[in-house]
């Protein structure tokens, strides 16, 4: 593609040099009427614009292809958490979250599978294919227009070589043709004095850029993968570039329509000039015809006044009559020769004027036919450009509507996720409170068990002491042991065997 573009640029440069040489070698009539230079300059500028727009479209398509490939690779390799992070970041970049009054029950598993994350990539891909097809059609139309204008330029140049304008009819204002004010696209930063009065798309993108930076700084998910953020930023940049390119194409279409209307006006002016020239030459021919008729009448009158030859008489009387006759004959012959020369000059001038008139009429007819065909072609081009403009506006409207729908869907999903997060936080808080209460209860129970264990140990020790001392464990001693006031005292308790023996 780059080789073809370089070949086209070289071809345009050679055409430009050839046109400049041809314009320098033209006669004075071409210098007095710079329409040929105007059309040559327009053809050259259109070729350069076609080459530049093709290069820009090729670069944009390469960038968009790379971004789509990166997004597809990342979509297959990313986890559920990174998908959720990309969804939240994309939505925060495009639209701020708004609190909704309705709450819906959420029934989802712990692992999120967000299908809406992959929708922008597919939409961008389809959008890029439509854009490339529209751009190719637009480039083909521009090439056809440039070819038609080149043919028109050659035809007009041929007519100017065949026919020369009279110097009387060309005013000073018609010698210098105004340059066409073609609107061009400029990416330079505008001053504060040249701000747009209407709400433009550039301001909308600036606002979204500021919202992107604020939302990114305020987000608490700083530990998410960097690849996801870079891919989403690339997607957004490609989207912005595509929107700007669509606006650029609309601007170029409007500029081309204005140029075509200006050319139609110029052709109408040339038609008026041709009609004026024709009327002036017809008036001159009529005057010359009238003058020729008057000269012929004068010749007839002079020939009728010529004296007849006298009757033969005596030789003595013939001498004075012959001298007078010779003088009259000489005057008549001189007058006849003079009038014959005048008549020949007038006839030659009349023939030259008739020939010139036929040439002018033929040239005017050919130019009229060419102008009519060119006007019809320009009108058809204007209609096609208007149709393309309508189609582009319709496509932009559809894209904006789809973007609004996607953004609203993303906002709803964000609200649902926020509600789920709030409910999870509340459940976590409740569980933490219950855990704290259980910990306190366990601590209290452990203290009570420790005290009970200590009391049991103490009781066991006292019981052992009492057993060792040989005290009798009755109710009073047990109460003292429990109260802690028991003092072991040895008592002589008879053994069981002695008691048994006595009973026997």
Automatic annotation (TrEMBL):
Sample GO molecular function, one term: ATP binding
Subcellular location: Cytoplasm
GO biological processes: microtubule-based movement; mitotic spindle organization; spindle elongation
Cellular component terms (Gene Ontology): cytoplasm; microtubule associated complex
Keywords: ATP-binding, Coiled coil, Cytoplasm, Nucleotide-binding
Name of the molecule in the record: Uncharacterized protein
KW Mitochondrion (keyword) present: no
Coiled coil: 43-70, 128-159, 336-448
Region annotated Disordered, chain positions: 299-325
